[in-house]
Amino acid sequence: MKSFINPILFTSWLIFFTDITIGQFPEFQYYEIGHTDQMLLGQSSLTDLDNDGDMDLIIGASGSTIWWFEYIDPEKWDMHVLGDDALTDKGGTAFDVDGDGNIDQVSGGSWYRNPGNNADIWERFENGSIYAYDNIHGDFNKDGVNELVSVSPQEGSFVYFIGSNPEKKWKKIKLGDGVPGGISPGGIGDLDGDGDLDIVRSDVWYDNANGDGSKWAVHRTIGFIESQGEFGRSSRVWVTDMDEDGDADIVQTESNNKDGRVVWHENKDGKGINWYTHPVAFDLEQDMHSLCVADFDNDGDMDICSGAGPMTGELYKRLFIFENMEGKGEKWENREILFKTECTDAVAADVDGDGDIDICGKTWKDDVVYYLKNMLIESK
Fold first, then answer.
1. Would you list the DSSP string of 316-365?
2. Nearest-angstrom CA–CA distance, 96 and 104
3. Which of 86, 207, 296, 319 is placed for a possible disulfide with 107 were both Cys, Cβ 3.0 to 4.6 Å?
4. What value does the mean pLDDT take over residues 220-248?
5. Which of 212, 176, 218, 211 shows the shortest CA–CA distance to 193?
6. What's residue 314's pLDDT?
7. pLDDT tens column, 91-130
8. Which residues pair with 359 in a beta bridge?
9. Per-residue pLDDT averaged across 50-72, rounded?
10. pLDDT at 1 > cutoff 60
């Protein structure tokens, strides 16, 4: 892995910002979590797998092994094999499949039951889902059980309903054609304000027409990202209320694109029909293959983390947080928090429970997994 630290001091470093407003934005400290001994790492999730109150990290290799890293402290993460033979490309998502109170793992056409302790193996099942580029989950019929959304460019886009016995094949409903990434990590929200969850997929959004996930109406009203080439319509998306006006907006980055852009789409009518696109960051020469939307500086508004994807030039990989300067998404400042280190599908949460949002990342072309600890609380 290429990095800017002294190899003798490999355990950690502080990433300092050179902007004169350094006091207004947190530093992040880098810790290496571990190595997987396999490349092509996807399936990122941050969740509490062992019910101990802190976040653990799930990472999986394409079509192969899945690991979970148990958080002990910033410098120590215990590595466990979660399962093998994942029927997925890079898609994976973690939620309670069987309703036993433990977070399970779904990876495309396979899912793994959390045994509820760190000693027993995770039992593997096949659910009938496609070999997925992206997976996300949400409760589309309001029955308290999450459904799975799967997308692949070859097979299409689908919603899967688990049913009363999750060990049996799950019922599928087709949404539409597929894209090389376009629903992850947060492409679910109530876009039309009717009280149910809808789905964003790159250049369209699907209206949960009956409110129970049984019928979907397509709206082709977004239309921002590059649509041509092998990775046309490839993006990362996140539904959130960016301008704090009470409706759902969309944050979007161009992934699998070495000149990716970052924008957010304002839901002008609150119904998902009229959108206005606000620029966040252009001309950074990054494959924007990560997207995390969170309040990284604890000032009460949403910031955006992206950058450093595998199509970026090796010497120019940079991970940014775009700081929301006025709280309404109209003015942004670029905060570089990592460079010369790849970051594919980063995930963010308060890992250590100290009250600020941390980031976990990984490489695609290598086997490195790492933790960026937000030092906001410690600096006060």
1. G-EEEEEEESSSSSS-EEEEEEEESS---S-EEE-TTSSSS-EEEEE-SS
2. 5
3. 86
4. 92
5. 211
6. 82
7. 999 999 999 999 999 999 999 999 998 888 999 999 999 9
8. 348, 372
9. 96
10. no
